[in-house]
Amino acid sequence: MKAVVTIELKPSVLDPQGKAIQHSLSSLGFDGVEDVRVGKLFKIVLADGGQSRADVESQVRQMCERLLANTVIENFSYTLEE
Description:
34% of the residues lie in helices and 28% in strands. The chain is an alpha+beta fold. A three-stranded antiparallel beta sheet has the order 2-1-3, covered by helices on one side.
């Protein structure tokens, strides 16, 4: 099974890297870009341990909460693929 995890800054958190990219895109002539937010994408391949889907979801959620995301300033979402 594969988990695809997306980490994004919360909307209330300033994103200086996103602003720098937005400015650079504008400098390159891409004037229609109103906002850029930078995030992270993780593709995690999980061993087939005979776990239920609920157990796998719980495990992925714990990975996000304990290591992958700083839940004070970031939101996370994930999908599971067979």
